[in-house]
Amino acid sequence: KTDSIDTATKDNGGKISFELNNKTLDATFKDAAYKLKNGDYTQTPVKVTDGYEVIKMINHPAKGTFTSSKKALTASVYAKWSRDSSIMQRVISQVLKNQHVTIKDKDLAGALDSYKKLATTN
């Protein structure tokens, strides 16, 4: 702790919030940390992307239930889908098809053609 050169964690004693869905932590680090019980530490340094780490588990996070995690998981999936243009195009196409959307204005008549073509191929 006192000799750490890790500028991100040395000011708080090297403590890192441990969550499996944390994408900033190295996968090797997470695998090693998750195997530890409270108070245990890795017997040998763990090789990670930026060097080596000795890991001590202070407070192993409890496993949540699906029910308690469902809302966050659902939001995460929907957020990922909303960033994927091909998924959004398929969703829009399906909605247009299911709701039988038609445009009567001649200037806008072709505005949704790309979505309608996609709906006929699905």
Automatic annotation (TrEMBL):
Pfam families in the cross-refs: Rotamase
Catalytic activity: [protein]-peptidylproline (omega=180) = [protein]-peptidylproline (omega=0)
Gene Ontology molecular-function annotations: peptidyl-prolyl cis-trans isomerase activity
Domain of life: Bacteria
SUPFAM superfamilies listed in its UniProt record: FKBP-like
Class in the EC hierarchy, top level: isomerase
Entry-linked InterPro entries: PPIase_dom_sf, PPIase_PpiC, PrsA_foldase
Alphabetic keyword roster: Isomerase, Rotamase, Signal
Every PpiC domain range: 1-59
EC number: 5.2.1.8
Keyword Endoplasmic reticulum assigned: no
Family matches, as PANTHER family: FOLDASE PROTEIN PRSA, PEPTIDYLPROLYL ISOMERASE
Name by which UniProt lists this protein: peptidylprolyl isomerase
Organism: Lactococcus cremoris subsp. cremoris TIFN3
